[in-house]
Design goal:
Number of helices: 4
Distance between the termini: 41 Å
Strand order of the largest sheet: 1-2-3-4-5
CATH topology: Transcription Regulator spoIIAA
Radius of gyration: 13 Å
Strand content: 25-35%
CATH architecture: 2-Layer Sandwich
Oligomer: single chain
Length: about 120
């Protein structure tokens, strides 16, 4: 059985915000790794989950589907999903699939954290 060629590391910024650093490939094989990372990132006080795509090497349509599944889980928890570090190619794919309308995309970690801080945590 094929294995996921992806690693995800969770960083807790504060009580309301966590970042999931993605390294490698996001495909159907990444489901367990992504959902485990989300479980680790999400606490009762977490309001913002940020995906760091700077280390993304490849993502296919199954990977996009995983992001939609994650988005649904996050919305059910009344959390916000944000992202940064997408290459121009993947930014374009987010536009085509309209994921950019559901997931706020930023250029850098500092910009997304500044928006969260300015918005008072996006609560």
């Amino acid at each position: 059985m094929p294995q996921a060629n992806v690693n995800m590391h969770v960083r807790r910024i504060d009580a309301t915000t966590s970042i999931i650093d993605i390294q490698g490939e996001v495909s159907a094989f990444a489901e367990k790794v992504l959902m485990d990372a989300y479980q680790e990132a999400s606490t009762p006080t977490t309001r913002n989950i940020i995906l760091n795509f700077a280390g993304l090497e490849y993502m296919n349509s199954s990977g996009i589907g995983l992001l939609v599944t994650l988005l649904i889980r996050i919305k059910r928890q009344k959390q916000h999903l944000l992202a940064y570090g997408l290459s121009e190619h993947y930014r374009h794919i987010f536009e085509i699939t309209r994921l950019n309308e559901a997931i706020a995309i930023y250029d850098s970690e500092s910009k997304v954290l500044a928006v969260i801080q300015h918005a008072g945590g996006l609560s």
